TrEMBL record:
Protein name: Cytochrome P450 98A2 like
Any Pfam family matching the protein: p450
GO term, biological process aspect, one: flavonoid biosynthetic process
Record localization: Membrane
Keywords annotated in UniProt: Heme, Iron, Membrane, Metal-binding, Monooxygenase, Oxidoreductase, Transmembrane, Transmembrane helix
Cofactor(s) required for function per UniProt: heme
Molecular function GO labels: heme binding; identical protein binding; iron ion binding; oxidoreductase activity, acting on paired donors, with incorporation or reduction of molecular oxygen; p-coumarate 3-hydroxylase activity
Gene3D superfamilies linked: Cytochrome P450 (1.10.630.10)
Segments crossing the lipid bilayer: 6-21
A GO CC term assigned to this protein in UniProt: endoplasmic reticulum
Binding sites annotated in the UniProt record for heme: C440
Domain of life: Eukaryota
Organism: Actinidia chinensis var. chinensis (Chinese soft-hair kiwi)
Family indicated by similarity: Belongs to the cytochrome P450 family.
């Protein structure tokens, strides 16, 4: 018993001295008192962005939060966000990689988890100049529209089946299927689900890989923040190796299928991302690890975020019947009742675009973004940010700041009719996709899909809360996590608005 007690006492004293040294050496932002060993870990409430927003009211728009012995700086207003993401962007463009993120990304061989440097610049260039160009996004538009109409058909079948009459449906089930099928088709050129909704063997394997990755990533939370405790929580090397091998084998199998098709068609490549990356491999000197990493970046970044945003948007539209009716009036006037909407209609649907933008303002899918890591000592807001610190931008708090938004908690799309606010990284009041060197390269793709899904859901159906529930009683609390699913999945009652023949999916093969 003596040795553990001595070691524990020594550790507490050492960390107490370390905190004091940091405060004396640097002018750190204010923040809640850090306890020895754990820092502020036990003070943080599960929904972190809300907790940080509350603390910002007490400590100010820039504050220090300690995860064990690691300093995390949180900024919560647009001026400081501009400093982090634009003025001091290069010094804050690295990534903090947990042990699991390091394993999944092969130590940053992808885009999301790469530190800022030659590799990041190269793969970012591939994304900007090759993968997410307007031409490629337009060429893949039929896939997006196909999957959205498949969603409409599945909702129509469920709500018009006699045994489901008067029953509400779980919205997430239908929009999640769109997000899954869309991203797998864009990235891999594969629809793992047939017309009857049955998933094939590769699809089941794919879903199992995604689920296992989430499980492995969540298994190390506490040890990640207290490095000297990691010997008590060893990395499951065998489990991570098995997961990585499983993921890589499936991805290579799909890549080989595409290579074979290209060879048979005399080298002609389709527009899917896997084909693009394989044909660009020599031009950009892309390793196989990087190609696999980029493909899985698209999966992880594009699948959850789209479904999350649309579910929140539908919750707000059901809570606010006035907005729902106004959006439907615009759709009826522009589209009418004898055809379905396409993305080509967007320019003539300004209010629908504002609905999508207001949804992303109130409910950004990654409310704290991914943390930026300082690669050198830097000053933000007059305070020191030591090299190696993590910096979080609370985009959720910024988008609800009463100093820059009128009635910030009210879902009012008209605010964007009155003032056009950019949301792709140029206006630091609205940052659902981040900004600067690490802005999401797929921002326009996400905007298009969210707008299309909301438009189709509103044009094809009127939406009401489940029987017995008032609109204002819909639960609008969030689940803890890096992304913000609704705590209780939205249930709603749809009523068809269009002729029956407009609910039929017309499959396309691109």
């Amino acid at each position: 018993m003596g040795l553990p007690l001595v070691l524990g006492t020594f550790t507490i004293i050492f960390l107490g001295l370390y905190y004091s040294y940091q405060k004396l050496r640097f002018k750190l932002p204010p923040g809640p008192r850090a306890w020895p060993v754990v820092g502020n870990l036990y003070d943080i409430k599960p929904v972190r962005f809300r907790c940080y927003a509350e603390w910002a009211q007490r400590y100010g728009p820039i504050m220090s939060v300690w995860f064990g012995s690691t300093l995390n700086v949180v900024v919560s207003n647009s001026e400081l966000a501009k400093q982090v993401l634009k003025e001091k962007d290069q010094q804050l463009a690295d990534r903090h990689r947990s042990r699991s993120a390091a394993k999944f990304s092969r130590e940053g061989q992808d885009l999301i988890w790469a530190d800022y440097g030659p590799h990041y610049v190269k793969v970012r260039k591939v994304c900007t100049l090759e993968l997410f160009t307007p031409k490629r996004l337009e060429s893949l538009r039929p896939i997006r529209e196909d999957e959205v109409t498949a969603m409409v058909e599945s909702i129509y079948i469920e709500c018009t089946t006699p045994e489901n009459k008067e029953k509400s449906l779980v919205v997430k089930k239908h929009i999640g299927a769109v997000a899954f099928n869309n991203i797998t088709r864009l990235a891999f050129g594969k629809r793992f689900v047939n017309a009857d909704g049955v998933m094939d063997e590769q699809g089941l394997e794919f879903k199992a890989i995604v689920a296992n990755g989430l499980k492995l990533g969540a298994s190390l939370a506490m040890a990640e923040h207290i490095p000297w405790l990691r010997w008590m929580f060893p990395l499951e090397e065998e489990a991570f190796a098995k997961h990585g091998a499983h993921r890589d084998r499936l991805t290579r199998e799909i890549m080989d299928e595409h290579t074979l098709v290209r060879q048979k068609s005399s080298g002609a490549a389709k527009h899917h991302f896997v084909d693009a990356l394989l044909t660009l491999q020599d031009k950009y000197d892309l390793s196989e690890d990087t190609i696999i990493g980029l493909l899985w970046d698209m999966i992880t970044a594009g699948m959850d975020t789209t479904a999350i945003t649309v579910e929140w948007g539908m919750a707000e539209l059901i809570k606010n019947p006035r907005v729902q009716e106004k959006a439907q009036e615009e759709l009826d006037r522009v589209i009418g009742f004898d055809r379905v909407m396409t993305e080509l209609d967007f320019p003539n649907l300004p209010y629908l675009q504002c609905v999508a933008k207001e949804t992303m303002r109130l409910h950004p899918p990654t409310p704290l973004m991914l943390p930026h890591r300082a690669n050198s000592n830097v000053k933000i807001g007059g305070y020191d940010i030591p090299k190696g610190s993590n910096v979080h931008v609370n985009v959720w708090a910024i988008a609800r700041d009463p100093a820059i938004w009128k009635d910030p908690l009210v879902f009012r799309p008209e605010r964007f009719m009155e003032e056009d606010v950019d949301m792709k990284g140029h206006d630091f009041r609205l940052l659902p996709f981040g900004a600067g060197r690490r802005v999401c390269p797929g921002a326009q793709l996400g905007i298009n899909l969210v707008t299309s899904m909301l438009g189709h859901l509103l044009h094809h159906f009127s939406w009401a809360p489940p029987n017995g529930l008032k609109p204002e009683e819909i639960d609008m609390t969030e689940n803890p996590g890096l992304v913000t699913y609704m705590r209780n999945p939205l249930q709603a009652f749809p009523t068809p608005r269009l002729p029956a023949h407009l609910y039929k999916r017309v499959p396309v093969d691109v």
